[in-house]
Amino acid sequence: MPKNHVYSEKFTSILNNLFHGVMLINHKGIVIEFNKSSLVLLGISSKKLENKKLSDVLPKEYRRAFEKYFKNCFDIETRNYGKYEVVLKRKKEIKILEIDCNQNFYSEEDHELYTIGLINDVTKRKKLEKELERQTKTKDLIIEKLEREQELNDMKSRFISIASHEFRTPLAGILSSVDLIERYLKNDDQLWQKFIHQTKVDSHVVKIKTSIKTLTATLNQFLSLGQLEEGKIEYQEEVFDLKEMLENHIEEFSTLTKENQIIHYKHKCKKRIVCLDRNILRHVMNNLLSNAVKYTPKNKNVYITSNIQKNNISITVKDEGMGIPIEDQKNLFRRFFRAKNVTNLQGTGLGLNIVKKYVELMNGTISFKSKENIGTTFTLSFTIDKLNEHNTNLNILLKD
Fold first, then answer.
1. Within a 13 Å sphere around the CA of 356, how many CA atoms are in the beta-carbon half?
2. How far apart are CA 131 and CA 142, in angstroms?
3. How far apart are the first and last CA of the chain?
4. Sheet holding 112-121: strands in order across?
5. How many CA atoms lie within 13 A of 359 on its CB side?
6. Mapping DSSP to helix (H, G, I), strand (E, B) and coil, where does residue 396 land?
7. pLDDT tens for residues 245-292?
């Protein structure tokens, strides 16, 4: 894969913050790119891994078996989607690594097959498994810990698999738009005001921003979920104009709408000032609006309403999309869950799970009503009983 390939350029910078090892490997087993955790887990320097076969940096007793495993990962007839375990001995430390090379994809740029290699340190899990065998009295507790850790590992593995595909489309849009912009800007800067392609350049700048937002949103969903579960996101209230905030956010989404698709917004009262976490609410609305636009076909609309009554703030997002099948509605907020009627559309299945956690973090509630082939309405509700505790002048603001 060429060094100037956008995926190659972005790969390390995006994934360096993960504590799991992530590598881009070609079909010959040669490591093209890798993050810092890969080096830490394998206990080697970057020079020993870059452009080397992964099998060559493993202990000798594992190399031949790993080569066979890696080959099977690319063979549709023989692959078993399993993982490969390696025991590393470094001084007095014994480390058990689990390697997964089943996240394959085809690059349209150079027509080559690649895989995303994942390395997890499962030493603690293995120790817990042995402990489970010895201590039957604490069996339930240990199983719970194992399942929780396994669920987290599977979530991260599935994210990398999904993200490796989700990144390709927006990055392709970035590449094509940048190329066009460079072509248009070859003229003298002084001629820019008379430049006949001004409108086109502006259009492609918008496309770049949209693609970047799509890419960032996919990554941020995974990172947000991890931060929420680890309790790293704090609820920080501030006073702001709800109507203005929603209008600005909806305006940003106007570039993402389909043909003859309009986002209608109405604020149903004179009160506009609220005290919530603006950043978290923005994340919530971003997910709900993205889904509404994505699942609503062209020539159909999306309706947003907001209202402030007594001690309650409510926001609704209504679409005219495909709706949610009745049998799927009970699982709608589960991680990675996707309704059976949207499997042909891109998505991670994390958005609504994150939305629910964000809303609960703000002491709010989220509910929905949906009918298949008619549409879905999500309703957010937040109490404002404690507003006076945060700003003594807020009563005056709320009366404006």
1. 13
2. 8
3. 60
4. 31-34, 21-26, 112-121, 93-107, 84-90
5. 25
6. helix
7. 999 989 888 877 888 999 999 999 999 999 999 989 998 998 899 889
